Amino acid sequence: MNNQHRSRRLALQGLCCVDAQGTNNWALVEDFIRDSREPVAIVDRALQMLAEAYEGLTECDEILKRHARRWDIPRLALVDRNILRLGVYELHEGKTPFKVVISESLRLAREFSSAESPRFVNGILDAVARELTHPPNDNKTEEAKTPETTDAETVEHPDTSADAPSEE
User: Fold this and answer.
1) Integer CA distances (angstroms), 107 to 40, 58, 138, 161, in order
2) Which domain covers residue 60, as residue numbers?
3) Is the domain of 41 the same as that of 3?
4) How far apart are the C-alpha atoms of 62 and 93, rounded to whole Å?
């Protein structure tokens, strides 16, 4: 397992903790990451990713809402929601190639979530990457080629399929 993946794993775990417990326990989350027995460089990168992803959480959730139109962000499974947030943060940051971010997010989904989650995560993050590559109204020709719905919209999310809105 490479260092970047190990940092992502810790950042994801931290995001999940903060999501479940709130920011009142931020110091405990940082202690949890520091106590991970990972080398200092991995811990430092994980803490940086956690802080930056959390700082941009509102923007990440707005981006996710545009691409997961059939899903309320709070109703997504906790792990999937935070894999997506971390992925959107990294895609938006632009330091890592889109394909690497998506591949790493799928790896996290396979490690920490259900069997159906990688497909769902892939559909959403692929749509986000396309938006960041070709912003809406940037080029009418490209916009015409972009499908109206993403693969993720047609995927039943494994933890909320019974609660999904009906198509009427």
Assistant:
1) 23, 24, 32, 22
2) 56-160
3) yes
4) 15
At 135, the pLDDT band (50, 70, 90 cuts) reads confident
Tens digit of pLDDT for each residue in 61-115? 999 999 988 889 999 999 999 999 999 999 999 999 999 999 999 999 999 999 9
Q: If you average pLDDT over residues 26-45, what whole number do you get? A: 96
**To which residue do tokens 């790493």 refer?**
104
User: 99 and 124 share a domain?
Assistant: yes
Do 41 and 26 share a domain, yes or no? yes
Give the separation between CA 43 and CA 46, rounded to whole angstroms: 5
Do 45 and 28 share a structural domain?
yes
Instruction: Take residue 152 and report the two structure tokens written for it.
Output: 């993720």
Asked if 92 and 60 count as a contact pair (C-beta separation under 8 A), the reply is yes
What's at 36, amino acid-wise?
S
